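Box 3.1. Reading complex inputs
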Amino acid sequence: MRALLPQLLRRDRQSDRVVPRSGHTAWLTSFTAGAMTFLAVFALALSMAAGRMADRWSDALARTATVRISAPADQIEMQTRAVLDVLATTPGVESARALSDEEQRKLLEPWFGPDLPVDSLPLPRLVELTEDSTGYDADGLRQRLLAEAPGAVLDDHTRWRRPLAVAAGRLRLLGLVSILLIGGTMAGMITLAAHAALAANAQVIRVLRLVGARDSYIARAFVRRFTLRALAGSAVGALLGMIGVAILPSADTAGGFLTGLGFTGWGWLLPAVLPLLAAAVAFAATRFAAFSRLKELT
Amino acid sequence: MGHPVISFENVAYSYGGGELLSDMTLRLAPGSFHFLTGPSGAGKSTFLKLCYAELSPTAGHVTLFDREVRSLGRDDVAQMRRRIGVVHQDCQFLDHLPLAANVTLPLTVSQREIDNRDLGDLLAWVGLKHLADALPPSLSGGERQRAVLARAIIMDPEVILADEPTGNLDWEMSLRLLTLLVELNRMGKTIVVATHDMNLIRQAKAQIAARVLRISNRRLQLAGADL
Ligand SMILES: Nc1ncnc2c1ncn2[C@@H]1O[C@H](COP(=O)(O)OP(=O)(O)OP(=O)(O)O)[C@@H](O)[C@H]1O
Ligand SMILES: [Mg+2]
């Protein structure tokens, strides 16, 4: 196998001419490789954008929520204790603790400056809770809080993002599956084209066998041709696909998901690898087709 | 007598119906010259195909250069065909390549150098130098037959099998071809020529010790020396 690549690339004019050029299979192979690579570039961009989004949103979900307790000064300690008791017995809540005055001052500092007299202001008390991996029942918790501490409000503002993060993860997977399907389809099409070329050249192959050609020699004439065609077609497809991705509006100017579709930094190298993969697929598919076909001849 | 280059041991062949060739035993010594005759359809071409491993016997053993044909892998068969030059009855060419490229095809597929002077001499000898660039479909039957002979000997093979090589040639050209085969035989090559042409056989026997094999009633016989 290792010696095959140099042989494949070395231009052997004699053996190249041995198999006649066949117009339609050549065109079909290049076109298929080009179109499939074009699609694969978009699937790749989709997959990578979804991946970036899934990562960002999962990070944002720190699995925390806050309970805000607003009550008259004489009741606040009692209600805070009640809230902590409720949280301690709520399934899905890993831990809960009341923020100290010092922490509350830090939270408010960006808005009101460092000299805020926290003690003298009727600020709500904050309880931070951390959920475990199973999560808790937010509606149930709200009702229990209402019964035990009327001044407590559960704020779980980051929860809505969770299904989106899961969806983004699925989307990334879908993109990768699409690339595999595209690769499989291309392998299938090229196998068919190779079989058509082999069938059209049955007489040529017979003559070559009669004058002492090895199977590997005959196969190479076809494999070389199909591999180079797939490489060329795929390179054009990849280039067009990358141009297509590049002229989409940039993520920075507009924000949001669809506009975030693109490659960043080293990511641009990935679509450039697709033609090499396409060539490898064509190589394997044609070689397999050629050897299985040649075995049927004497 | 050295090791036989081709040997048949109780060989039989059938294309699926009844047996076409039965119980053939034969040893071709290196450097021998044989003619193969028999009525049309007797199985002369089939016999030659057994000699270059295009067909495997349905019974018995064919041995080429001390190797049993059935034990040969596909690459071994390819290797074997480089040592056996075949002049096919139905001259098979690559129609998209010019005559010269067709003649050098055995060199091309075995990735050997092509010496253009040798090629020129060879084409001149078979009288095809002026047609080196012609495509095979535009050649006459006789021209094709001479081209296929040139292709058969370009690898300098040890054995030459010719199936009706003079079928489309006039007498003068047939004699020229015979002279070439006799010359090749004198150089030590083993030669088998399937032919109907009794005049050709007589002419050859005047020059060398050729033996005549005959296929009749599915068997191989040594024909009388008084042809
Ligand atoms: N591939 C094949 N399948 C079935 N039958 C075949 C095949 N090739 C040849 N035959 C039959 O086998 C018989 C012998 O054929 P073969 O070509 O060996 O005869 P031959 O002696 O060379 O005849 P000729 O002198 O006309 O060239 C013929 O009856 C032919 O029809
Ligand atoms: Mg015949």
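In summary: Chain B touches chain A through 27 residues (CB under 8 Å).
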